[in-house]
Amino acid sequence: MRPREPHAQRGSEDLCVGRSPAFGLLGVGFALAVWVVGGALLGSYLDGRWDTRPVLTLVLLTLGLIIGCYDAYRRLREVIASVEKKNERKGQP
């Protein structure tokens, strides 16, 4: 069994060290879901509180979708960069 490497500083290049990049991809999907569901829930709550149904739900759902897509794109770029860096260290193309 190979000893684990210590992670003194964890950056985007270390996302896949010692584990599968699938964990990074799970984070991408989870982040998108949190933004979309969070926007919808907050919008629904505020609509009920201020009697503006369904305006705020739709606005915050759309905003959550936009922010979630941007966040997923940013995280996906980090995962891809870490996989490429890991492959470079191994000498693979």
- What Rg, in angstroms, do the CA atoms define? 19 Å
Q: What is the count of distinct domains?
A: 1
| Main beta sheet strand tally, sense and closure | none
- Helix-and-strand structural type: mainly alpha
Helix-strand blueprint:
Elements: H1 22-50, H2 55-90
Q: Characteristics of this structure?
A:
93 residues; mainly alpha
Explain what you see.
By secondary structure, this protein is an all-alpha fold. It has one domain (21-90). It is built from 2 helices and no strands. The chain has helices spanning 22-50, 55-90. Helix 1 packs antiparallel against helix 2 (55-90). The longest helix is centred in the last third of the chain and has 36 residues, at 55-90. The chain is rod-shaped. The two termini are 27 Å apart.
